[in-house]
Design a protein that fits this description.
heterodimer, A: 183 residues, mainly beta, Jelly Rolls, four-stranded antiparallel β-sheet, elongated, B: 182 residues, four-stranded mixed β-sheet
Chain lengths: 183, 182
């Protein structure tokens, strides 16, 4: 198992809309434009260090996978299906602190469905609300979901998976990064 | 309506995991640490900027703000002919290109549920089926983008972003939505 981790996750949004209007003036007048704007900036950074608790984590895994047509890729975070970390140690996560996914395809219609595994237990512990709930991840779309304080709890057997489904006609690649805690 | 837009949405991740092992040595030998590292530098994502228009990496408006959601209640953002933009013009979105939501509470248990509105078809809404929801924990962030296809906005039954609070106290959140209209 890892003995140290340092992770930084950032979100930066800058967005400015503007509305230019030309008022109606008497013929022969010099037209004067009027521009209103609404700038929005947002910058969030989450930093994690090694341990268990708020803003803590003990491991990550990451990579690029190809999901075949009419198939799925399942990441079991609780030992059973054998997801290993980079050091070859079996991942037995207790909480997920962050999930990042990028649908690498740029082809219209290449939809991936991202499912939590919430078959049992309370609503506060998994990243989707109920069993079968899914997020649509469109081509070149990005999904980032974090829980720096509580974490998304990982159980055993029925409540320990992140599932990526591809119900379209061709294979789709995706990038994944998961930050987790274990005991 | 807005006549220009310039938007950029970037997620960045850097993570270094290390494992320090001390190999077994004969008694009296000087212990030597051996540290392995796994460095994750998120691959660059292209196409994170948006200009004014309709199509891939184009958008025509945004809305944003902070709302409190009362306990046992919900806040519903209807993207089709209910809300006004900052210029006082009604939003009649045809696609949502990006959603950002931040649960501003830092209290354990303050869960918000983020629901799409999917009356028909899995392809173009941000959740797969009606009532599907994402759990947004305290101080948690949700970023979801669709720069090429966009999440299609219908009228009536498939045009809302809903934030539910089924907890015992109000929870505030920050939201930003980037959208197209005709």
């Amino acid at each position: 198992m890892a003995t140290d981790i340092t992770t930084s996750i950032g979100v930066s949004i800058t967005s400015n809309v503007s509305n230019t209007t030309v008022p109606t003036l008497p013929a022969g007048s010099t037209a004067l434009e009027s521009t209103s704007s609404d700038p929005y900036t947002e910058s969030q950074q989450e930093d994690y260090t090694f341990g268990v608790g708020s803003a803590k984590a003990k491991g990550h895994f990451h990579g690029t996978w190809s999901c075949a047509s009419a198939a799925q890729v399942v990441f079991d975070l609780n030992a059973l299906a054998g997801t290993f970390d980079a050091f070859g140690d079996l991942i037995t996560a207790t909480e997920i602190k962050a999930i990042y996914l990028h649908n690498v395809s740029t082809t219209t219609g290449d939809l991936l469905e991202v499912l939590g595994d919430a078959a049992a237990g309370g609503i506060t512990t998994r990243f989707t609300l109920a069993a079968g709930d899914a997020i649509n991840l469109h081509p070149n779309g990005v999904l980032l979901l974090t829980s720096p304080i509580e974490g998304f709890q990982v159980g055993a057997a029925a409540t320990d998976q992140i599932e990526i489904d591809n119900n379209t006609g061709g294979a789709i690649e995706f990038e994944i990064f998961v930050l987790y805690e274990h005991v | 309506m807005a006549t220009a837009i310039d938007a950029s949405i970037v997620v960045s991740i850097a993570s270094t995991m290390s494992k320090n092992t001390v190999p077994p040595l004969p008694a009296g030998a000087t212990a030597l640490d051996s540290t392995s590292r796994d460095v994750y530098a998120q691959p660059a994502v292209t196409g994170t900027s948006y200009a004014f228009g309709v199509g891939p990496n184009l958008a025509k408006g945004h809305f944003h703000g902070q709302w409190p959601c009362a306990n046992a209640a919900q806040v519903v953002f209807d993207m089709n002919a209910v809300l006004d933009d900052v210029f006082g013009d009604q939003i009649v979105a045809t696609e949502v290109k990006a959603i950002y939501i931040h649960n501003l509470s830092t209290t354990v248990g303050d869960l918000l549920e983020v629901l799409g509105d999917v009356a028909a078809g899995p392809e173009m809404r941000f959740t797969l089926a009606a009532a599907d929801a994402v759990n947004l924990h305290p101080d948690g962030i949700l970023v979801l983008t669709s720069p090429i296809d966009g999440f299609a906005v219908g009228a009536g039954a498939n045009d809302t972003i809903e934030i539910d609070n089924n907890q015992a106290a109000p929870i505030s959140f920050e939201i930003y939505v980037l959208y197209e209209h005709a």
